[in-house]
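Schema walk-through. Below, the input block comes first and the output block second. Nothing else is stored per chain. Lengths vary across the set, and this one has 312 residues.
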Amino acid sequence: MKTSWRSASLVAAAAAVLALTTACGQEQGTQSTGSQNVGAAPAAGYGSSSSDGYGADSKDEQGSAAKAETAGQLTVSENAKVGKVVTDSAGLTLYRFDKDTAEPPKSSCDGDCAATWPPVPADGATAATGVDKALLGEVTRTDGTKQLTIAGWPMYRYAKDTKAGDTNGQGVGGTWYASAPDGKKASAVDLPGLSVRNDPKLGEVVVDKNGMTVYRFLKDQAWPVPKSACAGACLEKWPAVAPVKANDTKGVEKKGLMGFTRPDGVKQMTVDCWPAYTFSGDKSPGDTNGQGVGGTWYAMAPDGKPVGAPKK
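--- output ---
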């Protein structure tokens, strides 16, 4: 396997980031960019028991169309909303899970989670045009079964996808995404880590690399240090935006643009030192279903302010 790493930031950019982090009293966050595992050799699985936040639904049954059957001949399908996605021989979409890892390949979806997101067996899977067969591999799960991987990422189906072409699992819990042919998250857009979208109703709002709306929580704190008031079940509904490098943003105010480590160990991005989140209720780029929820959640403006929040 080959491992690639991003080159270090220019000295001038580093100096600017240091000045921003000093203002918020935190270290600059960086996003993990480890290379994908492209080997086909099996690796040990390190599954954990499922829990809320894994996109599991106890009402889902493995008897659905998404049950764990061999993938057969993989294909690449073009989806207007999601982009290029990998599908199995029945046309069902394959997904990847943000809580898994590719180096080494590791599945974190077991129990109820695996009932909702059936692992795709490695046996019988063959690559097709648009899918590099060198990227296909397998990982041994905790139950001893072999799961298909693409570029090291374990592959799953979604129990609520019942017919060819369905992508109902896209964005579920802010952690499940259709797999692109190279194992990365499928996306119909090519965006930097954070950028700005002009929403027809809200005006300019911040979006993440998947085009999903970024939100701010009025109960959070920015100064003297970033502090999130959203934890546990709240964080499952409002996933923290992972830190991105300052040079991987466009249109977002650079002041207070940094990452910090929460007390629960989760690393989170901030804009003007305000913690940033996405909303699990947003399913597609452009959705703003989290706007005004509970009178405390609002889309984030490029300067970190809450769009449309009542003035104090």
